[in-house]
Amino acid sequence: MHFYRGVDGADPEIESSDIDLLNAHVAGDPHAFAVLFRRHQNHLWHVANRTSYSAEDAADALQDAMLSAHRTASAFRRDAAVRSWLHTIVVNACLDRIRRTKARPTQALSSDEADHPPARHDEVSAVETRLMIHQALDDLPDEQRLAVVAVDIEGHSVSDAARVLGVPPGTVKSRCARGRKKLAESLEYFRDGGNRS
Predict the structure, then answer these.
(1) 165: CB partners within 8 A, 6+ apart
(2) What's CA 23's distance to the chain center, in Å?
(3) Inter-CA distances, 115 with 88, 108, 110, 121, 189, Å
(4) How many CB atoms lie within 10 A of CB 15?
């Protein structure tokens, strides 16, 4: 039976739950995943944009994440909300893209680029700081990274982050506390040039 044959004129985009849409997609409905994505698109874009260096990186990461979610939907476990599952995939796609960007070899400047003046010291410092923060975030365990990103980067309240991540508020608080402590240690390590006394 096709997913879009509503019962009694009901609009399936409104009447179907996230899990119903995901199950319909896994069962072969060609439109269910698109409906699910439209439902959460604004939130997921916001997540990608806040976790990426640029809007272009965010768009690419969001596309990567949705392709991954589309392919792996059958592996979804019901121990979390569909929205938090998508949220996690987007954050991980953003961090994966950041890792790949940092791993690219440095290329020599073209003559056109060489004619431009170098970036000001404060701009270089800001970029270095962002790289250090992303490296420190990348080193956190997944559950701590997601909690810190949700609360400290995206600006969610603890209760909202708990709802999105599908865990109790106390769990979000403890993960944030542990994650912030590790971040502070990592950032101090980077500021010291990677030297431990």
Answers:
(1) 80, 84, 87, 88, 146, 147, 150, 172
(2) 23
(3) 42, 13, 9, 18, 36
(4) 11
Q: Which residues contact 140 (CB under 8 A, 6 or more apart)?
A: 148, 179, 182, 183
Q: Report pLDDT digits (tens) over 151-167.
A: 887 778 898 888 878 88
Distance CA 61, CA 51 (A): 10
**Nearest in space to 44 (alpha carbons), one of 132, 154, 127:** 154
The model's pLDDT over 67-100, given as tens digits with 9 standing for 90+, comes to 999 999 998 887 678 998 898 899 888 888 877 7
The CATH number given to 11-103 is 1.10.1740.10
CATH 3.90.1070.20 fits domain 121-197:
no
In the predicted model, what is the mean pLDDT of the chain? 78
CA 189/CA 195 separation, integer angstroms: 7
* 1/88 Cα distance (integer angstroms): 31
Residue 122 has pLDDT above 90, yes or no: no
Judged against a pLDDT cut of 90, whether residue 18 lies above it is answered with yes
